[in-house]
Design brief:
CATH architecture of the largest domain: 3-Layer(aba) Sandwich
Order of helices and strands: EHEEEEHEHEHEHEHEEEHEHEEH
Strand order of the largest sheet: 3-2-1-6-7-14-15
Number of helices: 9
Helix content: 25-40%
Shape: elongated
Number of strands: 15
Length: 359
């Protein structure tokens, strides 16, 4: 059995742990593993294939990033291809990918990625490629699994940053607004806001009223608390408004969100007269090594993917469905963004301890 491994989309702490788990579990069965470099680029001429033996994955569990490299512009169904006139056209190269996969003698693909990569994995499976998906994203927005690896690490990074903001905000009697990743889901913002004792958190799932946000700050001011911490998910939007875009990308890729933090900070300063600063934590949330929790779930996912291959369970994704790791059909996962439920216990906890959602 020859297994190919691909890491696609944005990087997340825990990718290397999954790779190591797949390689070691396959080695126990006498199977061979190979890494496709840069998403699927290694099969389409943009990079190459690397042999993944036990020596190649030694000591990588605690490392962030991915030894295979990744890209969020590597959809083989919409492959950016230079044209003779200098323009770039999107070309369906999925058949080329499948032909290269088979020519390499691979028997199965482990596709590690978020919603976009899992959609590609599903589309490849419908064309006959034997694939098992592994859910990866710091956003924790993949359906079918309680958690994705990378999420806990991102929340830990965000929480540590917000902890530090408390001291400087209090020293200067300032309002500090920190913008966090998460796209259309507020998991990172909610969990880090509750864990770091933030005062206000704005989520994509709950459109906010800026006047309610300012009222919460004024109430703190009246009670003698002259500083406030506001956590804003990058996909947060005002009532009747839309999420802000940093960049609108070409078809087949996702737009970049961002800028809502600075806009909220400016509105707070204008309405309350409080000195207000904003901070975008950005890609720091993707960096660094995985937490213990992410290492463990990543290792469990990787070995489960090998077991799924052994069972011939293709067209599936491994998922954490407590207390076990199971497999779910990819068709039940794609196109479904897992948002924070409005009856979430964590969300209710935030309300019960006095955190405002600006609603």
């Amino acid at each position: 059995m020859r297994i190919a491994i691909s890491t696609g989309g944005g990087d997340a702490p825990g990718l290397n742990a999954v790779i190591r788990a797949v390689v070691l579990a396959a080695h126990q069965r006498g199977w061979q593993c190979y890494g496709i470099r840069r998403g699927f680029g290694g099969l389409l001429g943009n990079d190459g294939i690397m042999t993944l033996n036990t020596a190649a994955v030694r000591g990588i569990t605690h490392l962030g990033g991915t030894i295979l490299g990744t890209t969020n512009r590597g959809n083989p169904f919409r492959w950016a291809t230079p044209q003779p006139d200098g323009s770039v056209a999107e070309v369906d190269r999925s058949d080329d990918l499948i032909a290269a996969f088979r020519a390499s003698g691979f028997d199965a693909l482990v596709s590690i990625g978020g919603d976009g990569s899992l959609r590609i994995a599903y589309d490849l499976w419908t064309k006959g490629l034997p694939v098992v998906g592994v859910p990866k994203t710091i956003d924790n927005d993949v359906a079918g699994t309680l958690v994705t690896f990378g999420f806990d690490s991102a929340v830990t990074t965000a929480t540590e940053a917000i902890d530090k903001l408390h001291t400087t905000a209090e020293s200067h009697d300032r309002v500090m607004v920190v913008e966090l990743m998460g796209r259309d889901a507020g998991w990172i913002a909610l969990h880090s806001a509750v864990s770091s004792s933030a005062d206000i958190v704005l989520l994509p799932e709950i459109p906010f009223d800026i006047e309610r946000v300012c009222d919460a700050i004024r109430q703190r001011e009246a009670s003698g608390r002259h500083y406030s911490i506001v956590v804003v998910a990058e996909g947060a939007r005002p009532k009747g408004g839309e999420a802000m875009l940093v960049e609108r990308r070409a078809a087949g890729t996702v737009d970049r969100l961002g800028g809502v933090g600075s806009r909220v900070a400016a509105a707070i300063a204008e309405r309350t007269g409080k000195e207000t600063r904003s901070l975008v934590l950005g890609h720091l949330q993707r960096g660094g090594g995985p937490t213990t929790s992410d290492r463990l779930i990543a290792l469990r996912f990787g070995t489960a993917a090998v077991r799924a291959i052994a069972a011939g369970s293709f067209g599936t994704m491994v998922a954490y469905t407590p207390p076990t790791i199971s497999t779910v059909p990819l068709v039940d996962v794609i196109g479904r963004t897992k948002l924070v439920p409005l009856d979430s216990d964590t969300l209710q906890t935030a309300r019960d301890i006095g955190i405002s959602f600006g609603d």
